[in-house]
Write a structure and sequence with these properties.
The chain has 511 residues and is α/β, with parallel strands linked by helices. It folds into two domains: 280 residues, Rossmann fold, CATH 3.40.50.1820; 146 residues, no CATH class. Helix content is 42%, strand content 12%. The chain contains 20 helices and twelve strands. The strands form two sheets. It has a ten-stranded mixed sheet, with helices on both faces. It is globular, with a radius of gyration of 22 Å. The protein starts with 10 loop residues before the first helix and ends with a strand.
Amino acid sequence: MNRPIRPLLAIVIVLSLVAGCSGNGDSSGGGLADLLAGVTSTTGSAADGDDQPGTSEGDASPTIMWDGNDGTMQVPLDHDDPDGATIELALVRRPANDPDDSLGPLLLNPGGPGASGNELVMLAGLILPSEVLDRFDIIGFDPRGVADSTPVTCGDHAFMDTYTAVDPVPDSPEETAEAEAVIEQFADNCVAESGELLPHINTVATARDMDLIRQALGAEQITYLGFSYGTFLGATYIEMFPERVRAAVLDGAYSRSLTGGDMAAGQAEGFERSIDAFLEWCTPQRCDLASGGDPADELFGLLDAIDAKPLPTSDGRQLTVGLAWTGVIMAMYSPGLWPLLDRALVLARDNGDGSRLLGLADQYNSRSPDGEFDNSQYAFNVISCGDEPAGSTETDAEVVARVLAVASRVGPVFVSLPSPCDHLDLDTGAPSGPFSAPDAPPLLVIATTGDPATPYQWGVTLAEELETSTLLTVEGDAHTAYGGGITCVNDIVDAYLLELELPPEGTTCKG
């Protein structure tokens, strides 16, 4: 199994901000301070139970301890041992503006795996229109192993600087050995620091946590909105608890039936296609990179030059080719980031300054200016490894051949190094094969034609597997669609969330 480049993160939030997130009219209010105030206030009946346990079905029901709109909840470390050790989940709620007309809880997951659902709720006013905010209690939670819930860790911040700077395509046996040693050290750190957690950090366990959250909220059903990896989590929950779902939107979708080779080949091809789209956009009239000649030659020539000699940056670190590739990949999540990438590449080419490319890489790697990483890199790897089904019939050599056949330039970045999973050996018994939930309510699956991280066909496949779903096709190049500037998508999703109205089969929105 090859090292994941981590393309499923919740970049949807960053990109919504970059793109202006104007598709829902005036719902974004008066600025970020107002948006955050909507989460931390305690007006409305949903906040009347502060400092009290949640209520639910029977005396043994799970409980949420609320402090204002911040909550904590104890759940079993091992769901098969409910009376054993527990871990903590962290939650955030934004009470419905009109609690008397509430449709119940709307649970959010931004993706990853490893992204914080609580952070997504903090930005709900940028993504959701006032009509949805009026009628739902918006509930975020950090999945087990993630952020403010009991977290996994796999090394200190200095080590993570080394890990994220690794050359993804080593040029010599010595470079290969050095890179592989760093990856093995990552796995060793995970075992040393989070060993007892590791077998229990996976999507099935998180789906079972979600149902405990539902019970603790006292809700017979939940409404769900998941982006990217959040669609995988949502589909898992729907399959396990179909009767507990009122409605679910799965945006940037993919299926459990994808093998590791399918994932690697699909994403490599997707990012190569997005880079081609960027290069086609990069004309002299709007892209300074093209001033030096053919933009493809400029881009890949610059990456080769950085591989040979890393560039200095304003904060004293070196921009390695691994970090440069990460900056490029980051910008492929939305055309709204292409002008930023152009400026970063030109600064590197003309001034020998890697600062802007490093800034894009730091956003992708969730590294703050003070040098601290959040735990999303750790959680991404541990959850991804925990979700790997056993018994793949495809060899590493076969995966490499598939990837290079569809992405000769980007492909090596995906398949030249091993994965930490090779050293973690997490045999969690993860399910495999297609999803199926014939007893689920009508569902909405969204897939975007030029999505690099969750390619369009993956969403088509998930919609075919989930028997009650309708597929909404979005013509565009961004990763995920709802909550941005596409009015057609926003109107369809809002109508479904509020009125359970689905679009006709075959509906397409233009991005």
